[in-house]
Amino acid sequence: MRSSRSSAEGASNGALRAVESTRDASSIEPFDEVREPGVPGPANAVHRVTDAKATNSGVNVCGGAQQNASHDSPRDAPAEPLSPDDPLAPLPFNPYKGNRGLTRAWHAMKNSLAGFRVAIREESAFRQELTLAAILIPCGLVVPVEPVSRVLLLGSVLLVLIVELLNSSVEAAIDRISLERHELSRRAKDLGSAAVMVALGMCVMTWGVIVGPLVVGWVRASL
Q1: Which of 132, 125, 134, 137 is nearest to 192 (CA)?
Q2: Candidates 9, 123, 164, 171; catalytic one
């Protein structure tokens, strides 16, 4: 009986020792030196473990500080001033844009009249089209048609003048930049001339569709 009890107690003690050894092994931290109990180790073993922990914590702190700095640097960094070529940069101050209300309308009217004078004096194409408009506008007011047709007749004539003024402004801007022959300058002027031709074609088509039957009827009645 004593032998069986002693063997049982020895087995239980062995199991407890195994559990305790497992706990001790799991509690061992990195860089710790494992020794047998009762065996003296070097005096600087504790210092090694402490230095290793401090080094790891220092790395983590520095790394966290660097990450925080990297995340906070774009927010805390001052915004760089925009260059004049940047489309989002504010426009320079224009003293001619400071007028408001009736003063602005008065200056706009003066500038428009100045533009008409320059177009009449400098642009021969505008003078020809203005002469044509001086003939067609009274005819459009006198011809017996419906109000909508009258508006179309007068609007087609005014459209030619509008497009010609825009074409003249584009040509003046291109000549202001450079007077040398360039493919892009020629293309811009050709596109403006094409726009004027389309406006003239629309004017001819409108007058031909609305006034053409009336003219044919008047000719037949006179014959």
Answers
A1: 125
A2: 164
